[in-house]
Amino acid sequence: MSQSLPSAGTHPDPVGDASADTTRRIVEEINATHGLELSLHSRFSSGMQSGAWLLVGADGTRAVLKARPTGSAVDVQHLATIIERLRAAGYPTPRWLGAGATKGGDVYHVQELSVGVASTPLTPAKTALLLDVLEQHAGLDPDPARDRSREVAAAAVDESPGGFRHGVRQLGAVGRDLIDAYDDVMDAYGDVELPGGDLVHGDFNTCNILLDQGRVSAVIDIEELGSGTRVIDYACLLREAYVWPYDVEVKRMIRQAAEPIAGPGALAVCTAATAFFIIGFKVKHDPERVDSTLAGLFQLAADLSRPL
Predict the structure, then answer these.
(1) pLDDT (tens digit, 9 = 90+) per residue, 68-103?
(2) How far is CA 154 from CA 35, 165, 192, 219, in A?
(3) Which residue(s) pair with 72 in the sheet?
């Protein structure tokens, strides 16, 4: 079975691109450090794969390189150890072939290119597959030092400049109304403490969950993982279901699976945080869809205010 390129696509010929010349030198150093024989093929051109490069080997190996001029070699090597541990536990994320930092200070990791295509758009059948993966997050607790539950709980209420809520308020009356809608949902449950102990992907949406032959073949873009409650990832998926929007049965399935984990109050807090986040993301990267995103998020708040 051959590995397929992600749906984001690639620039087919990096020759002459100054960034490609720099990346080619990084690949040479990575090969020497990790005993690999990979060459630069092309750059992923859009979507969540932006900034990643396709590498190929003479033996047909395909791999993805992500490199950036900031970060810590210690941190990325620590993450590589976590990825290995998750894979040993059966979690379907690609194997890392190498991680570290170049002599010039670029922090990198190289992972196998996964088989499959993004699970977008969700159908009930595909939703069932993704919910099964989310339940694999239970108890994995990969990195307690990165407490995603604490971060999400704070983001749901933090009004500081630069925070998600502050960005939503910059939209004016509609932004204030959205915040009020989610505050009403959260207030109905009083003080909610988000539990921990699970794997949190941090961006569990359909473009990061690949399917092949009717199964989940890979969970990608896992670099921001941490520990916390898996309800955070359920909320991310539920938010996507309303923003696009998907079929009502898809929405019901996600919410029905999420609420029993830590209660509807926990889902409300996690959903508020991810709703406020996505508004800022859309304003910056997809302004044409801000209005439709707002409509979906208002509907999500309204639905969460009523029992399932």
Answers:
(1) 999 999 999 999 999 999 999 999 999 999 999 999
(2) 43, 11, 11, 26
(3) none
Strands 62-68 and 10-11: unpaired
Query: With contact defined as beta carbons under 8 Å apart, do 165 and 179 qualify?
Result: yes
pLDDT value at position 16?
53
Give the Å distances, CA to CA, from 106 to 39, 62, 149, 220.
Answer: 18, 21, 30, 21
Tell me, what's the pLDDT at 17? 66
Beta bridge partners of 77: none
What is the per-residue pLDDT for 153? 98
Phi, psi of 217 (to 5 degrees): -95, -25
Q: What are the structure tokens assigned to 182, written together?
A: 């989610």
CATH topology for 118-304? Aminoglycoside 3'-phosphotransferase; Chain: A, domain 2 (3.90.1200)
CATH 3.30.200.20 fits 10-115, yes or no: yes
CA nearest to 196, candidates 229, 147, 163: 229
Q: Are 27 and 67 in contact (CB under 8 A)?
A: no
Amino acid found at 41: H
Structural domain spans, the chain: 10-115, 118-304
Q: Are 131 and 233 in contact (CB under 8 A)?
A: no
CA atoms within 13 A on the CB side of 110: 27
Q: What is the pTM of this model?
A: 0.93
Instruction: Write phi, then psi, for 179 (nearest 5 degrees).
Output: -60, -45
